[in-house]
Amino acid sequence: MKFLLCLVFVPLIVTAQLLTTEKQWTDECRAETGVSIEALDQVRHNDFCITDDKIDAFILCFGKKSGVFNASGDVDVEKLKAKLKTIVNNEDQVNEVIAKCVDKKETKEERAFRAFKCVRRSYPEFKAL
Ligand SMILES: *[C@@H]1O[C@H](CO)[C@@H](O)[C@H](O)[C@H]1NC(C)=O
Prior knowledge:
May be a carrier protein for lipids. With 129 residues, this protein is mainly alpha-helical. The protein has a single domain (2-122), classed as Pheromone/general odorant binding protein domain (Recoverin, domain 1). Helix content is 67%, strand content 0%. The N and C termini lie far apart (33 Å).
């Protein structure tokens, strides 16, 4: 019986911790960037017709906390690769998406949001967490 309980409880606890971290980072980055709730809702639903341009800074802020972007605001390719591989365990496919989505154009905020959108188009369930 104890064993059964453990099997059920562990995943629940892990999920709760992830959600708490996500909420904390979201709150911190909202305070830092002033992004609107509407824009965040849109991102959650993969609706990228966002008029609030603070979303760029928000994505960069959140991604830095999760480690997908490093301190200079560049994509940490190894970290992103590791996260994508939890969605599709296919090195070639992951490399293809990274080659398509990661570039050095424009400001680092614009790049961050563009990379995020691009990855989500290939993998709608991608989370930077
Ligand atoms: C972030 O990554 C870029 C590209 O890999 C690298 O040039 C830069 O030095 C890194 N910055 C930090 C602070 O690690």
